[in-house]
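Narrative summary of target 7.
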Amino acid sequence: RYVVMPDESVVYRPGTPLRCSEALDIDIVPETQRFLDDDLPQGAGLLADGQTLATMPRLKPAEATAGFTVTLCYCPNFASSRGGENQACDSPAEFIQPVGRKHYWMLRVCGPHNFQSCGVTGEPYMRILPQQPFVLRLQCPSGGRCADANENRLRFIAHVGSQDEYPSWHRYHACSQYPPPPSFPEVGWLLFPTDVAEDLVHTGGQRRDYKVWTLRSLIANTSLGVTFDVCYCDVQCDDGYSNYFKVGSVSTAASMGVARWTQNLATPLATAEPIETVEFISKLGTVTLYSGITSPIDEGMSPYDSVIFSRPAVLKLLSYDGEALDWDGIFEAGVEFTGRATETLEANLRRRSGLPKPPVALLDRACQQSPFQPSLYEGPSSEDTVLDYKAYIADGVDGTSPYLPFTGELNDRSFSVKKAGHVAACYCATFDELGQCAGDHYWIYVAMIMVKGPVADVSLSFPNNFVIQVELDGWGFDSTDTLRFIGTTQSCSENSYSPRALTTGYRLGCPGFNGTDCRAPVRLEDIEGVIDSSSVSGIFISQIIIGEELTTFVFTDDVTGFFTDGDAITLDEDTLLMGTRNRTRWTAAERHEVALLSGFYEYAEDPTKQRMLWNRVSRVERRGNIVPNELTVPIGWPEESRPNLLPRYVAGIGWAKRNRLRTRRELLAPGPAELTMKLCWAARDEGVQKYYAEVGEVIFKEPEFMYDAAVYLTTQVEEDTGPVVITLTPSRDNEAYRQMQVPMIVRLNFRDTLYKLEPLLAGELTETLRPLDMGDSVDKANASQALCGKLFMEMWTNDIGGFPMPRGCYYGVQNEDLPGELDDGSLEIVPGYRDYFVIFEPQQGLKSECYDYRQNKMSACVYMFVINARVGASLRSLEDEVVGVYTMCEGSQAECGPYVDMPPVIEYGQGKPSRTVLPRDSGGLSRASVSPGGADLASMPEPLRLAAQYVEDGTMRDMTSLDIRAWAADRGRPIERLATLKLFLTPFGAWDLGFTSTCKAGCLAPEGLVCSDGRGGNTSTCELREVTDGQVALFMPMPRNVIALQYPREMEVLNVSNSRPDDAYTLAVEALALPAEGFFPRKYLMQMINLEGTAASTILTNALARVPAAGMTEGKILIEGQAWSGPRPFVGYQDNELVLRLTLGATLRSAAVAPPTAWLGLEGGEDAVDQNETSTTTTTTQGVLPPYVEIVLPDGYQCFVSGKGGAYTLGARELFGRDENGDGFKDNFNQSLSSGAWSVDGNLCRFTVALHAHLTARQVFFVQVRVNNPVVPVFKDDPKNVWQIKLRGAGGAILAPPSNFITLDQEQTELGWAGNLAVLTPLAGETIQPTVFAMGEAGYVHVFFRAVHTLANESYIVLDAPDDFDFGARCVVEDLSPDIYADWEGLRWGEDLVGDRARTYSLGQDPNCTGDNWRRLVRSPIP
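Modeled conformation, tokenized:
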């Protein structure tokens, strides 16, 4: 230290050195105060000898504030009585030999204004800032190491890590090298001011206690986050570099601090109002940097510790992740590119660096090479305007200021950012003589700022009559954000960023229930925004695993439905602990560490306020599979410095996804008019909602129309119940049906269930039918095939493949909106409405083009849904849309594909009624009957069976005649002449009475009466109509399933005076085609309409049943395996996996009453019935026995089904991918049954239909069975080798005997399918002898085997080689050497044909040989 002498001279006196031990009875006092306790040796000193270097203890941060010197004392393996148990070097007294001194230097970073007090009366800085002056002050060791001379010099080299650093005395020490290894890549990273004389630049002065480069401040023209080493030479510095040694390192700040305001609000400037740093899109603000922060030595370094600003700067902003530009063109200026894609700066830098967080050097390059971006922001956005917003150092101390606001000379300029996103702030603080930035290379990246808001200029289209939610992408969304719809001529900024909402054309809070919601908006309506978060999902983060480069968040549940790669996450710091301390006890350094993961950074001048800089997540894969409850973010720490972050609460750590904002699913535009609005986004700013952003345009309109949709009534009697048919026909040119890879959904929206059409539960009309409960609903996740049977009576299509098997059905509650107020003050009458949904698996849904099985040609597709419904009294206009029919995709625009313009709707159809309702006829009908023509109804058992009875040219045809009768309910009001009688024949998809509309009918009168047509006969007008008799019947022949009859013109009217109570006219209809499908007993709806067509009545007939035509119930086996008998074809083999294709010849419908428990499977159920059983139904006190489908295998087999029987064999996968006719649709859908349960018993596999469910005739489904083969061989032509399907209706009703799988003859035409399988005996004595062993060479293979049974003509032998062998499409078979076939035993002909002495035989002359691959299905091309 310097001491003032009596003569007032100043003399430097170095510290007095402590001596090593000089007396064995006196301990020296080692230096321990300055070093970390954990690094100090226990007892003995530091270990050092000829082979071992001593590791010096680390300094305590609180003690590392000045230079100092220590004396090094050595113990030469010396033991004394002072030591314990006479051990060497275990007492300080034994360190007797001084070996030198170790000097500790302290390098302080100071500002140009405070280098005298720096580290003396005030804290020094820990970091410097690029292009801002700083002063280095070197504190000399107390041992007098610094000379009293001006020869000292500094030298700066690139930072050398401790692992690569040599001691200062070593010849390879970096400071003593020239050039220094590694050298700086550019010249001029550290510059001295040019106005300082060269001879004054290098010296730090003559003082011996410190050296300071006063008035000669340094400027680092480098990037943020760069460290360089400082080398010092005390004397003889011009003699090369050998006298330089390292005295410290200096780093630039990792990021400049961002201030919230342009000035200190506690002491505001009198000349300018404070301006806030930009936070929201469109809101005026600025960017203010902040510095001059020092760190308390005991709390660690503040993240924004850096020298104070003392030079002005200018600003440039670059869009980091919000705007796509041609960055390759910007970076490679002058290089010609073709076909360059635009991308964000973030994406470009990630691609260039290969890192999730690009290095700062690349951001600097972007700052230097990018032009200004006036499309991003207004204000300093061009060369002409940047100086108007120059950040001046005003009103600072000694020409310095912690604030660097880019607000111009008067600190009063502000600007706005026009596009949301992360914005990279670049600055230049080095100017030329004209006051401009001295060069592009002086532009550097200094901070990242998030401008909160949505992606703008979007156009969102939504379908009318859909309750939708609006989803927005953007930055920094919060749960307090709101949206507002305004008119197209309004602005979001009007009324101080609170424009008045549009209040007509759409509704909120939808759908309504019981008239309590779904209302018109109010003038200042704030539509609540929602972000996915832990509080919304109930899923938290249970663990944070920090790695070197990535940090993994482990969640308490699956989050794949909430996050995709690139989504943004923030953490709730209030739910975090660092060790055992919550955020109120964290230091500034710790708060910054947490911010790296949480995404919330403190403003540099106001730690109580935070700004957001989120992290993007990536999904985690292990072994090729997504880990559903883990995500990573690109933040990491070295192992030795990783923070210990734990959940504060048992539930876990809170989180939020900040890049996606959505409304609740509550918006509805009823239409039909198109509605266009603007959408505004608001953030809560100082407690008030401010609509800063215009998101874009929102359009509600009618979706693209399908070719046809309609609603067809049966009963026209108001408030009556009957079947209703809803049809839809997709547009043939709509590619969405072919291309879509996500599930397809059909939505039926019943527009007015209170007054026009109310859907009822499925069931026979004899049952008491009721609607679903008003509040009853099933969501999509719980859709089931059984619910389809609960809602629908039939599903039919004209496609030859049958109606596609749905994944399931589901439905919503009955909605009723809040009534609005009419002009007269009364409330409007609001309808009830309800949705039915049918969902199909991906690429197994509706088609736009079908092969019509009735016309045997390609045509449009018609899909028919039959429901029971109540026809309301208000259904009196053919223009009423009673059912909105929609085909939809499940997913987003990207998932639905480019052919869907307005997800989720593919197409829309207006289901208008085919006819209107009529008043109920006060007379009506009392009963009706239908019977086979000429049959004695009284003598026939119930139910009647319809069977082929029409003989033409001696050939039995599937035709019949019907006798139809009806009785008036009131004989005083008899059936009128020319009254119309309609008989609706169900199932509608099964009945097709003929291709012509005319039919022949006669009127048969009771005894004593006349039923004359007035022309000498008894003809009754007869027409065969379609129940779907609207537009669809105009472009496609539809099934004729309605008989319309008119009583003759001169019919004698039955009345009380001329007839008996049982008398009725018989309308005998001839030559009606019977349906090929069968059906269990059912009654038919008959409707009579009076002559004037002003009233109607309905009645049910007696029950009829129909046995399926031959071949309608069909089963066949997919041919797979080397022997076409499955992959395990041999006797006794187990688990032979087979795929069966089943087609039902009749609809099976389960009752709406729960079955007995025993009937949920085979155990405890009925025994197998034979084909001679009669038709019966069985009920119990527990309900009606459910229907079932039974697969019956031949004796000796055992049958098993796993789960739902889904087909997943190699052959099945190929089958379901096949499109042989090239129509763009798969020929076979992978349809399995889920509306019930499989059970097994020996050779039986039974599917029992669940409660409410039904299986539709003509529907095709596949089931994968596992069979255990018989233990004896079975031939395909064995008469006992018969596979069968058995159908049983509800209550055990028998419609027909079991149906066999396809025959051997049918196998010849249905290639790839079999009706049964052979069970093979393994060959014996098989041997294969190759003749060539070289890879890739061709050669013969000698094959030997013993036949185990006789091979008939047309038998075949399969030789199966591994995949890499190739026999060719036409393989070659030749005899072996004649010696092989010689009779070496000399046997007489006919003896010992088998056994060890048997001769070897050839296969005969010219056997047919074909190469193939057994994994190929029969109709697939040979690979």
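Residues 182-190, 192-201, 1155-1181 have pLDDT under 50 and may be disordered.
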